[in-house]
Write a structure and sequence with these properties.
Layout (H helix, E strand, L loop, with lengths): L5 H4 L20 H30 L3 H25 L7 E3 L4 H8 L2 H4 L4 H28 L2 H6 L4 H13 L6 H4 L3 H17 L10 H4 L1 H18 L8 H7 L6 H4 L18 H28 L7 H21 L5 E3 L1 H9 L5 H16 L1 H8 L3 H21 L9 H28 L9 H11 L2 H13 L8 H4 L1 H5 L9 H6 L13
Antiparallel strand pairs: 1-2
Helix pairs in contact: 2-3, 2-4, 2-18, 3-16, 3-18, 4-15, 4-22, 6-15, 6-16, 8-15, 8-20, 8-21, 8-23, 10-12, 10-20, 15-16, 15-17, 15-20, 15-22, 17-20, 21-23
């Protein structure tokens, strides 16, 4: 038997991911672009509806209030997505609501000064204004770190090895949004999961007019089929005698969004009243802003790979964080109950349908703004049962996580040092947040439980986030453990050319600002 050559059992590292139909600056036809943009809009609805649906009732808000918050969140998401794709990193990323802000927001909701208000609507408005004030103050963290280029300086301590657990846990860290939610209504969740995998992978070569319809529009087709099936089950009375939790998860008529939504409503700043400011609330919210910063950093790097672009240079990454801070400021001014971060599921969809076009994401932003103003139509799409979204998340979060693991190709994984750092960071990134979650479920408060509420919120928020824990552990170990003699093992020779804007000629193609704005804001 002939000896096996090394090139037959190994694959050379690749700066850009291959196999995409359209990369960041190439575009499908306008008809396809509109359909693909609508698909990203549908996917973004999951988080935009889930967060207000959980928080508004706890605050004392009505179904009308919930609909208004959903509309406002979608409206601001559309604006923030346009700002990010035009002036931020310019990557094809949807900027949506973030679960990282749940801990400080719930802490504000439980504040005794609001809990004692008897009128539910007044309690809702008072709590909303307090959340707005905290978001407005906390947004300054990302604005300062981003536009001052401090985050660019910090990012120089990152290596491909250090980024592997961060990007991987941006996807894996959201496992509780996946099959745990699918399991609340298996009769629609599992068919959605199976159908989505079948269409996007096994039947991806099926073409109509040379367009791989099933791969490219798998989400739209599966959502239409399973949503109709769910509506049929609801109309036939299949859930009439089932437990309330099952009915809430499965039925298509339990959200009360369509009946409560106005026909036309344009969100505007300060529509809930003047924000109120409290130092303790703002400090706890700053932790969520830091978590959002870390999670978005990982998501931007994943998006760059799935858009077949080079990794964003430090200057571009910091610029994107600054614009994300502007987005959180808008969240506070409009009153969305949460801050902004990169939508991980939409990043995963770039890989699923192999379309990394920036224009598609900008069209989806247009849909968000349009349907947030046409309340009834937006509410119709927002009434899709959550298990259907969760089924798709099982695939899309996994794709993002695997992109993180793909950075291992630039490192030496025959090094015990690298194996130690990667393994420990991944394990602690999953284990520590899980401990904080389990503790909170049992004790109704986080492990940090002192008389200083702001301190509790800060620590509990930081350690609830898997990517943030992974970043702390990985970057610390990577820059302290035998770092002087391990530059090649860490992947730094490959990484170095992407740290500055002029380090690689392709950066200009992917990350140059539009309208010739680089004349006024020269890249470093």
């Amino acid at each position: 038997m002939a000896a096996i050559k090394p090139e037959e059992i190994s694959h050379p590292p690749m700066d850009q991911l291959q196999g995409l139909e359209y990369c960041i600056d190439s575009n499908p036809s306008w008809a396809e672009t509109i359909a693909l943009g609508f698909q990203h809009y549908i996917l973004a609805l999951g988080t935009a509806v889930m967060i207000p649906s959980f928080l508004v009732p706890v605050m004392g808000g009505s179904d009308d209030d919930k609909v208004r918050v959903v509309q406002t969140l979608l409206f601001v998401e559309g604006i923030n997505t346009l700002l990010q794709t035009l002036f931020g990193t310019r990557l094809p990323t949807v900027v949506g609501g973030s679960y990282a802000f749940m801990v400080p927001v719930i802490s504000i909701i439980r504040d005794p000064s609001f809990a004692m208000i008897e009128d539910p609507h007044l309690r809702f408005l008072s709590t909303m204004r307090a959340v707005q004030g905290a978001l407005i103050v906390a947004s300054s963290i990302q604005i300062i770190l981003g536009f001052s280029q401090i985050w660019a300086i910090c990012s120089r301590f990152f290596s491909p090895l250090g980024m592997v657990p961060v990007i991987a846990l941006v996807g894996f860290g959201l496992f509780d949004r996946g099959f745990l939610v699918v399991g609340t209504c298996v009769e629609i969740g599992i068919p959605m999961l199976i159908l989505f995998i079948a269409f996007s992978q096994y039947l991806k070569n099926f073409q109509i007019r040379q367009i791989p319809i099933l791969e490219r529009f798998a989400l739209l087709i599966c959502t239409t089929v399973i949503w109709a099936y769910a509506h049929l089950l609801t109309a036939s009375g299949a859930y009439k005698h089932r437990p309330d939790l099952t009915q809430h998860s499965c039925r298509t008529d339990r959200a009360n969004l369509i009946s409560s939504a106005p026909w036309i409503k344009i969100p505007y700043p300060l529509e809930w009243g003047a924000p109120t400011f409290d130092a303790g609330h703002a400090f706890g919210m700053m932790a969520a802003v830091l978590v959002s910063l870390v999670e978005s950093t990982g998501a931007y790097k994943a998006a760059s790979r799935l858009a077949s672009a080079t990794p964003p240079p430090a200057h571009v990454l910091s610029r994107g964080i600054g614009w994300q801070g502007i987005g959180i400021l808008l969240n506070g001014l409009f009153g969305t109950l949460t801050g902004s971060t990169v939508s991980v599921e939409n990043v995963g969809l770039l890989g699923s349908n192999r379309i990394g076009s920036r224009r598609v994401i900008q069209v989806s932003a247009g849909f968000m703004i349009f349907f947030s103003m046409l309340g009834k139509f937006g509410a119709l799409f927002a009434s899709i049962p959550f298990p259907m979204f969760a089924a798709v998340y099982c695939v899309l979060f996994g794709i993002v996580a695997s992109v993180g693991l793909s950075f291992l190709q630039f490192t030496n994984m025959n090094s015990m040092r690298n194996l130690f750092i990667c393994g420990v960071s991944l394990f602690l990134g999953l284990s520590i947040p899980e401990y904080f979650r389990e503790y909170t479920i049992r004790a109704f408060h986080g492990p940090a439980h002192t008389n200083a509420g702001w301190f509790n919120d800060f620590l509990n928020t930081i350690f609830f986030s898997s990517p943030t824990v992974a970043l702390i552990v990985a970057v610390f170990l990577d820059n302290t453990l035998e770092y002087k003699d391990s530059a090649k093992d860490r992947g730094m020779p490959w990484w170095a050319k992407f740290r500055t804007f002029k380090g690689d000629s392709r950066n200009e193609e992917f990350y140059t600002l539009p309208f010739n704005l680089n004349r006024f804001f020269p890249p470093s």
